[in-house]
Amino acid sequence: MFINYAHRGASAYAPENTMASFWLGVQMGANGIELDLQRTKDGKIVIFHDREIDRKSNGSGTIGEHTYSELYGLDFGGWFGESFRAEHIVLFEDFARTFCRRDLTFAIELKDSGFEQQVVEMVNRYFDLDHVYITSFSYEALQRVRELDEAIRISWLIRDKIDAVYLKRLCNIRGNQICPAAVHTTEADVELARLQGVGVRLWGVTDEQIMRKAFSLHTEGMTVNFPDKLKRLMDESVGKR
After folding, report:
1. Cβ distance 58 to 15 under 8 Å?
2. How far is CA 85 from the centre of its chain?
3. Cβ–Cβ < 8 Å for 100, 120
4. For 165-195, what is each residue's pLDDT tens digit?
C-alpha cells in the first residue's frame, strides 16, 4: 500500500511537528505521519526538527540546552500564525498515546544519536511494528537501533542517488527501506532497490510537479507538506484504473 506521509504533519498549513499539524494531516487524508525526535536536557524525547529552536518558537538555543518543562512553556505555533499561539512542543510519548491505535504508518526520524534505546522501548510499548519505520540520515544511529531490536523496521535517509554501495550498507543492518530525495530518483533506481529486497520512500517533494513525477515511480510512499494534494492524486489514480 502506498503511504502518504504528512511531513511533520500537514506542515504547509500548520506549524510543523505540532499536534495541530498532525491532526490536520490525518483530516486531510494522510495514511502516514513523519516526525522528528530529539532529546531534552533532562532526557525527555520531544518532537522537533531544527537544531535550534529560534525560528520555530519564541525561545532560543537547542533542544538539548532546555528541560522539557522549559520547552513546554514556550510558544511553538505563533511563528506560523496567530491562531496557532497555543501550540506546545510535543512529547513523543504523548504523540504515541494519541495516534498509535489509528490506522497509520509512522516514519520516526532520529535527528541525533544517543537516545536510540529510549525510542526503541517506546515504539515497542505503543506501536504495531508493522506500521513503523525508524529513520535517520545517521547510519550509525540506525546501526544501533538494529543492535537493540531485530524486528523493528529501519529506513535510511540519503542525500545522494540510490546505488549499490548504499544498498549493501543498508542490507548489512537488515534495513527495510531507503529514502532518497525525489528529484534524484529514477525508475532504474527504484528497481535496483527492489532487486535487493529494499523498499523506497521519497522525500524533498516540495511542489506538485515533483509530487506527480515521484508518484509515477511506484515507490512505497513519500513525505509531503500538503497531504491533501497527494490524497487527491492517489484518488485520481484509483479512478483511472
Report:
1. no
2. 24
3. no
4. 999 999 999 999 999 999 989 999 999 999 9
What structural domains and CATH numbers belong to the chain?
A: 3-37+97-239 (3.20.20.190)
In three-state form (DSSP H/G/I as H, E/B as E, the rest C), the secondary structure along the chain is CCEEEEECCCCCCCCCCCHHHHHHHHHCCCCEEEEEEEECCCCCEEECCCCECCCCCCCCCEHHHCCHHHHHCCCCCCCCCHHHCCCCCEEHHHHHHHHCCCCCEEEEEECCCCCHHHHHHHHHHHCCHHHEEEEECCHHHHHHHHHHCCCCEEEEECCCCCCHHHHHHHHHCCCCEEECEHHHCCHHHHHHHHHCCCEEEEEEECCHHHHHHHHCCCCCEEEECCHHHHHHHHHHHHHCC
Residue with cell 525525489: 182
Q: In the beta sheet, which residues pair with residue 62?
A: 52
User: Which residues of the chain have a pLDDT value below 70?
Assistant: 239-241
Task: Tell me what pLDDT residue 239 has.
Answer: 62
Write down the pLDDT at residue 114. Answer: 96
Q: Answer yes or no: pTM beyond 0.90.
A: yes
The sign one gets for the Cα dihedral 100, 103, 109, 114 is: positive
